[in-house]
Amino acid sequence: MRKLRIIKSTPLERITYVVAERLKEVYGLDVVVDEKTFSVTPQSFNALRRQHNAVSIAEILSKMKKHDELLLALVDVDVYAPGLNYCFGIALKGVAVVSTYRLDPRFYDLPYDESLYRDRTVKEACHEVGHLLGLQHCSDPKCVMHFSNWIYDTDVKGYMPCARCTSKLR
Ligand SMILES: [Zn+2]
Ligand SMILES: [Zn+2]
Hints:
Blueprint: E1 3-8, H1 13-27, E2 30-37, E3 45-46, E4 51-53, H2 54-62, E5 69-75, E6 79-80, E7 89-92, E8 95-99, H3 114-132, H4 151-156, H5 163-169
Parallel strand pairs: 1-2, 1-5, 4-6, 5-8
Antiparallel strand pairs: 3-4, 7-8
Bound molecules: zinc ion (2 copies).
One zinc ion binds next to helix 5.
């Protein structure tokens, strides 16, 4: 069974455990949640954009990754990827980063809603881990591998890969 370790820099304890359960359910991974929290360092911060570079965060994390595991970090800072104004996450070389910053309804001046916040985090985590397992973007708007250009896309999609994506996993 493939191992996946989750580390977080957010105080979202309950949400992290739901993410772990869903990743087990969707991909059949052996998931553990690291007890230690991970701190995003100033090294990945772009002062002009006032955002962290998700690629730099992933590169820093790749040094903490054991060779037989996949690593997922849940961070609460705003992140971007080169060529994008912002992103919800990134996956490269066995490391995935999901930012909860723009998944929180409060970012859109809406009241706090833990179940919505949790569902969005689950979907983006299942999306990035899907990339780690070799899946690419999917044109089905309900499939977890559909690319989220903005939060509406995340709300439309589910946390499960469609039949076509699932068949590629096997
Ligand atoms: Zn993607
Ligand atoms: Zn799909």
